[in-house]
Amino acid sequence: MKIWLKKLKDFFKGVSKHPRFINVLSLIMYYYSRWVGKTTRWDIFGVNQLYQVWHQEKAIILVIWHGRAMMIPHFWNGQHPLNALVSLHKDGRIIAGFLEKYGFGTIGGSSNGGANSAALALLHSLQNDTAVAIIPDGPRGPRMKMSISPLYFARKSGKPIFGATYSVEHSLVAKSWDAMLLPPPFCRGVLHVTKPYYIPADASDEDLEKYRQEIEDEMNTLTFKADRRFGLPKIEPGAIAKSKKYPAKEEMKK
Questions:
Q1: Which of 49, 95, 132, 182 has CB 3.0 to 4.6 Å from 172, enough for a Cys bridge?
Q2: Are 70 and 181 in contact (CB under 8 A)?
Q3: Global pTM?
Q4: φ and ψ of 140, to 5 deg
């Protein structure tokens, strides 16, 4: 029995890496998010300012929590080019396919691989007036903890950072490290966008940490506020993905 279970597991593991399987999952995500986006009654805060600044600056840096990424593409107006940073593993390829169906460009890379080439590609995008989207707590966490990398890009390019988050009533919360929100259609929702954060070119590492904490705090405050509005449980920051490929930081220290 154990042999058959292992063979079945190996079969699905192999199938899950097949390009057609990845494309099917990307399509399902795309059409579902479009359906939810169009049937949800949204209250939207901060988007007008985002697009005003985007128009003035030609490009921005958009940061989104891993667990709140699914619905954000719905609010993109398609008038400004945008490249999204995606991880290189299987989940990243699914997300890349999903975003490309919305018309986003994608750049492959993460802290676990392809970081240098991805960083150069992101800076090149910003210098050529193409916005970039980054998930600063991906691909494995800690959940809702802001990494420092977007601030380096902001300091180097002079482009502002915006954070975006949302919530939808009656949503399910996945039992995953990122506590991904799974919103249903035909409900009420709210989208929050932070104020713009400009990072001075001469900002020290201490300054960057202060900005990093400020952005993280505002994104989490808006996320808590949105969830509280619909009676959803408060999701605490800090969880880390556990996998053989990406071990927890505590395990890496041993």
A1: 182
A2: yes
A3: 0.87
A4: -140, 10
